[in-house]
Amino acid sequence: MFGYRVPAPDEAMLISGGRSKGDAPFRVVTGHGAYITPLFRKVRFLTLAMCEAEVEETCVTQQGISLNVRAVIAFKVGNDTESIISAGQRFLSDQDQMSVLTGRIFAGHLRSIIGSMTVEQIIKERQKLATEVLDGSKEEMVKIGLTVDALQIQSIDDGSLGYIRAMSAPHNAAIQQQAQIAQARANQAAAEAEQESQRNQAQYARQTAIVQAQYKAEVDKAQAEAAQAGPLAQAQAQREVLAMQTELAQRAAELRQQELVSEVVKPAEADAERVRILAVAEAEKMKIQAEAAASHNRVALDRLLIDQLPEIVRQAAQGLSGANLTVLNGADGLSEIATGLVGQGLAIYDSLRDSLGQHEPTEEATDRGELNPRPAPGEDL
């Protein structure tokens, strides 16, 4: 459109010739366009891009030592309207003067700051020097509408005085000493490694010689053994046959001993054990019968005899049955014979009772667990 102007992204458009807001001498437009009335308005553009200024200045330190300092400053016009107006009023017609003026401002502050410091401080605290120079020049830069983004001190030297070199001499000496020590250690390590390598080679040579000697000795021994293999093998075979025959004889003897034990000793031991067991059983039986007999009272003994009385009479009758007897008085005679048999049975019964009664325990002895013989007939109690 005719009369419509638009500034670049890194430019500020300054419009003069008309009224502006406030006390501003001209109108500032950034980031968008504006309509310009021909003949009544005038338009100029101020750069907002980054600019660079270099400073090479000879400064005297607190110690009176001259130092050549080189620094680089990165700056630009401020983005606010007040900064653009201040920079436009000073640099719009010759914008290259911004770099020149900025360099002079920083050179002055650089001389002032370095004059209050020693060489050692400047060398060791270079960042502190840059910060103090920035802080000292910030106010002046704001007045002319400029802002500083960075200050970089590139180099500091004393020309041909050699002061800085003398400062570094102790450090260089220490570094060189450490380097020499490190080199000496490296040389020593290399020499030790070489010596170790030589020792290893000598050891390897010795071991090789030993191995070769052992190998030769083994070869000679093998050859000698091979030469004697026939007789030695035969003798060894005979020894092995004798050893096997001796072992077989020992095994046969052991087997025969086992057979004898199985055929003679074991059966004898079995018979002896059987006899011993029977004897023990018989003794136990007699003991039990004795204890049983001792434990029975008189009534049980009489009962036993009474129960056996018929058998006694019967046996007596059988004895008479084989005898040649003549009965003269008939039935009376038979009655007398029967009566006699019964009487004999009773007599036998009394005799057995008296005989067994001599070994019957008394009641008191039974209570105490003792066995006392019964007194025989006619003895005093």
UniProtKB/TrEMBL annotation:
Coiled coil ranges: 172-203
InterPro entries: Band_7 (IPR001107), Band_7/SPFH_dom_sf (IPR036013), Flotillin_fam (IPR027705)
Location in or out of the cell: Membrane
Domain Band: 12-187
UniProt biased composition (Basic and acidic residues): 358-371
Keywords from the UniProt entry: Coiled coil, Membrane
CDD domains listed in its UniProt record: SPFH_flotillin
Stretches the record annotates as Disordered: 358-381
PANTHER family, A to Z: FLOTILLIN-1-RELATED, FLOTILLIN-RELATED
Protein family: Belongs to the band 7/mec-2 family. Flotillin subfamily.
Name assigned to this protein: SPFH domain-containing protein
Taxonomic source organism: Rhodococcus globerulus
Lineage: Bacteria, Bacillati, Actinomycetota, Actinomycetes, Mycobacteriales
